[in-house]
Each structure stands twice: as structure tokens, then as C-alpha cells.
Structure to design on (164 residues):
């Protein structure tokens, strides 16, 4: 499952695709899939808990990571029996890859931004599940970043030179 690409609009589709590719690690971008941009703490905590529960139902998943470039942090415990859960605030996507080195492979990264999430997936050798949110709900900053990400999309979709 290396350097693949799929577009989705729902959590169910993202998890289905990750399961089809036998992902052991799922990395989720927090905004907008877990909690909407600028949402409150309660929405973040509720979204994290929901995603952990749903991801735990995917056969073979051993680790769920939430990675966000924002400083937001959960106030609830994300511990789940039989599942390792990691939350990375101020993650430095796509530049910092050290925090992901001991994660089981293969993996899938589920996020909305090609320039951060897609390029991080590429650097890690993970499948990129590209979340396409409704345009009406995307704030201007993330929308502009997404437009710039269109230029990098061919790189994210391309398989590496080993054919993986």
C-alpha cells in the first residue's frame, strides 16, 4: 500500500479504503475530518473519541495517530483497549517525520491538504486518503492552501521508482 491515492468525503469511505489496503496505522489530520476548523474543545474531544471508536473496528489497525499543525490538544483520554493512540499537536507536517518512525506499516494518512497531508504521506510511504470537504464550509485560509496543493497532486499520486 505505498504511495497510493484515493478521494473521499466521509469517514466511512476513508476507513473502508484503509481497510482494503490492510493499513496497520491510520494517521488523521484533525481539521476538518475530526473537528471543524475553529470548533470548540468539546467538538474536538467528541470527534477524537468518535474516530478512535470507528477506526478500532477496522481489521488489522494497531495504531491511530491524530496529527495537526495547530496547537489544539484533547482534554479527554484517547486510550482504547488493544489500540495505540497518539496525538501530535504542532506536528510540522510535512517536514517532521521523526514522530512516525516506529509506527506499524503499511499505513494510511487521511487528510484534506495535499501540501501537508499528501506530502507527508508520500514521505512516509503511506497511502493518501484525500478528504474533500464541501466548499461552503471551508475557511478561506485552508481553501487557498488546497488550491496551491493542486500543483503537488501529481507527485502525491505518482508511485515511486521501485513500482511500490
Amino acid at each position: 500500500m505505498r504511495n497510493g491515492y484515493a478521494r473521499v468525503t466521509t469517514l466511512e469511505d476513508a476507513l473502508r479504503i484503509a481497510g482494503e489496503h490492510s493499513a496497520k496505522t491510520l494517521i488523521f489530520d484533525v481539521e476538518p475530518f475530526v473537528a471543524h476548523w475553529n470548533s470548540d474543545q468539546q467538538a474536538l474531544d467528541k470527534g477524537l473519541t468518535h474516530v478512535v471508536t470507528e477506526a478500532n473496528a477496522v481489521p488489522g489497525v494497531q495504531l491511530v495517530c491524530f496529527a495537526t499543525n495547530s496547537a489544539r490538544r484533547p482534554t479527554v483520554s484517547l486510550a482504547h483497549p488493544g489500540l495505540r493512540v497518539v496525538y501530535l499537536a504542532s506536528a510540522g507536517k510535512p517536514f517532521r517525520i521523526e514522530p512516525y518512525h516506529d509506527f506499524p506499516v503499511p499505513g494510511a494518512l487521511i487528510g484534506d491538504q495535499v501540501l501537508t497531508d499528501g506530502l507527508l504521506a508520500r514521505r512516509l510511504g503511506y497511502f493518501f486518503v484525500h478528504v474533500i470537504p464541501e466548499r461552503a464550509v471551508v475557511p478561506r485560509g485552508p481553501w487557498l492552501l488546497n488550491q496551491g496543493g493542486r500543483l503537488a497532486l501529481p507527485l502525491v499520486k505518482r508511485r515511486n521508482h521501485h513500482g511500490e
Notes: The longest helix spans residues 41-56.
